[in-house]
């Protein structure tokens, strides 16, 4: 089996004889134009309506055109954007934002349309929540604001009963239905952006259909746009914080595939590139001093176990705790994770459902290292212990009429060669770990995983993760509640990758959610709830998502830093260089950045 796995991995990493860029990069890079890129096969915008979109392909443009109440700086500290100050009451249910003087709406050509007022934020929220607009980004408000869910469902007709008001032209008041100590991260989202009621009346149904049918409140204006080709943004000299905008022009260029960005970068036609396919391995062997690994996003991938599987024996096995624990301790995930990071898979291992470097207590302790989770936040691979659990599971399941080996089904997208290789590695590693007890059955789906597989309960396992929409453990762990997006015991055929009924977890979750004043206590209580999920092996931890091997001529630690809201796509603070940075230089930037975050109490 080890020979089989080695053959699979080798097939995915065949190197060309001429690969590698070990020589010096002497290209002179433009310091006045950020040359960004997107995939023209899947990366073009589908709307300019910032109040009705949630896709990253839209967000990465729109966050540069529009501003909200708050923003973050390059270290992750909250700073005022259109609001210059903000306060909250003792239980975090009422937040008050004071707007700046002299902030305006601009047309695409940069001319002033009208001043921005507090009422524009109310109008924006009314647009988002109006069920007739069918906005896809209502969740931020409906989860938090008084009356928002009721207005969005149509049960409440009077919008003045919703928890957002303009107390005067400069004051926005937001009232939450429960204490929301995390609201600063919530209002970063475009669903909290303002809109002019007069402009909505003026353009009607054309709002958001193109760059000339929106007003601008952010640091950039759209100079030109050609669908599936290029977008050019220019800095707005009248933006309130124009002095912080270091790059006057941004060009977003369509590329045919990720692999092609390397050559374009080395010619100076892009400001950065991502190495894909066999490129990282080839460049590593060639000693490429410019290749570095980017930081992960706030998303820990896990393998969900479908305890409502259509196969009765598989269903019984996955509902058996000893069987799940055998999988938890007995599967060596290294080979599988190598498909994501071929050079250093262990560096992206994760062991919890909540990702590391996401939540921190007041003393800088990472949430995943709090007492309840610390014992789980490590590599617990233990084949001897796994064998003990499997023996117990076998005895219990065979007494219930189950015959071994247990069939575990895994599906991947038809035509996706990388996904097919990963599936083969998954099969090889599981069958090597449990040669007599498990048979992995691979299958393909042609449309979507949800319709072709999950709705029919065909899968035994599926890898997925959750990026929090706002910076609080509730927005990660709620996906395991009875009606959660990921583990759903209420709507088995239409939602969720697994369907465990978890009353003990719900009790622990509710206890944590009720603590809104003491954030440290709140985080420790949520850690206890999450530890319960891990202890009982309701999922298999995988890796932290989002890392990639890259080369760059801009400092990635100069950019706005946030884990939510999409503000990380902002070009506002980006610093360009006239040369390609070496990995050593990037490491120095990161060290200084991390030290500043620690000094600010933002990380341990």
List keywords for this structure.
604 residues, alpha+beta, Dipeptide-binding Protein, domain 3, four-stranded mixed β-sheet, four-stranded antiparallel β-sheet, 20 helices, 20 strands
Model description:
The chain is of the alpha+beta class and 604 residues long. The chain has 2 domains: 183 residues, Dipeptide-binding Protein, Domain 1 (Dipeptide-binding Protein, domain 1, Alpha-Beta Complex), CATH 3.90.76; 245 residues, Dipeptide-binding Protein, Domain 3 (Dipeptide-binding Protein, domain 3), CATH 3.10.105. It has 20 helices and 20 strands. A hairpin with a 5-residue loop joins strand 2 and strand 3. The N terminus is likely disordered.
Give the gist of this structure.
With 604 residues, the protein is an alpha+beta fold. It contains 20 helices and 20 strands. It folds into two domains: 44-226, Dipeptide-binding Protein, domain 1; 300-544, Dipeptide-binding Protein, domain 3.
Largest sheet, spatial ordering of strands: 1-12-11-10
Largest sheet properties: 4 strands, mixed
Strand content: 15-25%
CATH fold-level name of the largest domain: Dipeptide-binding Protein, domain 3
Q: Can you tell me the residue ranges where pLDDT is under 50 for at least 5 consecutive residues?
A: 1-20
Count of individual helical segments: 20
- CATH homologous group name of the largest domain: Dipeptide-binding Protein, Domain 3
Structural class: alpha+beta
The count of DSSP E runs of length 2 or more, i.e. the number of strands, is 20
Query: Averaging pLDDT over every residue, what do you get?
Result: 94
Please give the domain count: 2
Question: What is the rounded Rg?
Answer: 25 Å
The helix content is 25-40%
Specify the overall morphology: globular
Distance between the termini: 42 Å
CATH uppermost class of the largest domain: Alpha Beta
At CATH level 2, the architecture of the largest domain is: Roll
């Amino acid at each position: 089996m080890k020979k089989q796995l080695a053959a699979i991995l080798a097939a995915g990493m065949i190197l060309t004889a001429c690969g590698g860029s070990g020589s010096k990069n002497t290209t002179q890079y433009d310091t006045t134009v950020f040359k960004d890129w997107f995939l023209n096969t899947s990366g073009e915008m589908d709307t300019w309506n910032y109040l009705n979109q949630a896709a990253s392909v839209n967000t990465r443009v729109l966050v540069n055109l529009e501003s909200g109440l708050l923003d973050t700086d390059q270290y992750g500290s909250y700073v005022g954007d259109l609001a210059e100050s903000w306060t909250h009451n003792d239980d975090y249910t009422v937040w008050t934002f004071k707007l700046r003087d002299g902030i305006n709406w601009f047309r695409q050509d940069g001319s002033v349309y009208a001043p921005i007022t507090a009422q524009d934020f109310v109008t924006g929220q009314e647009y988002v929540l109006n069920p007739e607009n069918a906005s896809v980004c209502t969740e931020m408000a409906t989860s938090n604001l008084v009356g928002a869910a009721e207005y969005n469902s149509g049960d409440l007709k009077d919008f003045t009963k919703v928890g957002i008001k303009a107390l005067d032209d400069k004051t926005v008041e937001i009232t939450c239905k429960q204490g929301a100590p995390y609201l600063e991260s919530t209002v970063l989202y475009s669903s909290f952006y303002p809109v002019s009621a007069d402009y909505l009346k003026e353009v009607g149904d054309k709002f958001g259909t193109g760059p000339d049918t929106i007003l601008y409140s952010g640091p950039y204006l759209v100079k030109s746009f050609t669908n599936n080709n290029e977008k050019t943004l220019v800095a707005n000299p009248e933006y309130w914080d124009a002095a912080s905008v270091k790059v006057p022009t941004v060009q977003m260029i369509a590329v045919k595939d990720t692999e092609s960005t390397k050559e374009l970068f080395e010619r100076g036609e892009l400001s950065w590139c991502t190495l894909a396919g066999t490129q990282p391995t080839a460049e590593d062997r060639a000693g490429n001093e410019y290749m570095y690994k980017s930081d992960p996003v706030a998303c820990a991938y896990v393998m969900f176990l479908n305890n409502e599987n259509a196969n009765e024996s598989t269903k019984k096995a996955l509902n058996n705790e000893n069987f799940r624990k055998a999988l938890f301790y007995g599967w060596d995930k290294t080979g599988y994770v190598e498909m994501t990071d071929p050079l250093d898979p262990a560096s992206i291992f994760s062991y919890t459902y909540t990702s590391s470097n996401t939540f921190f207590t007041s003393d800088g302790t990472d949430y995943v290292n709090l007492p309840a989770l610390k014992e789980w936040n490590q590599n617990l691979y233990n084949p001897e212990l796994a064998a003990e659990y499997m023996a117990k599971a076998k005895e219990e399941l065979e007494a219930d009429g189950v015959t071994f080996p247990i069939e575990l089904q895994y599906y991947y997208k038809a035509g996706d060669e990388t996904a097919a290789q990963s599936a083969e590695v998954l099969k090889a590693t599981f069958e090597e770990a449990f040669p007599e007890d498990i048979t992995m059955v691979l299958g393909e789906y042609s449309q979507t995983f949800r319709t072709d597989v999950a709705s029919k309960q065909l899968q035994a396992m599926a890898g997925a993760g959750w990026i929090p929409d706002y910076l609080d453990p509730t927005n990660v762990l709620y996906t395991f509640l009875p009606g959660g997006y990921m583990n759903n015991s209420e709507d088995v055929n239409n939602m969720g990758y697994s369907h465990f009924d978890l009353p003990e977890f719900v009790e622990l979750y509710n206890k944590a959610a009720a603590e809104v004043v003491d954030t440290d206590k709140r985080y420790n209580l949520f850690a206890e709830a999450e530890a319960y999920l891990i202890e009982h092996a309701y999922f298999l931890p995988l890796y932290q998502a989002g890392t990639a091997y890259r080369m760059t001529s801009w400092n990635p630690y100069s950019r706005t830093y946030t884990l939510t809201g999409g503000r990380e796509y902002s070009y506002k603070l980006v610093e360009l260089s006239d040369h390609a940075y070496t990995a050593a230089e990037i490491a120095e930037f990161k060290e200084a950045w991390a030290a500043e975050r620690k000094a600010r109490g933002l990380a341990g």
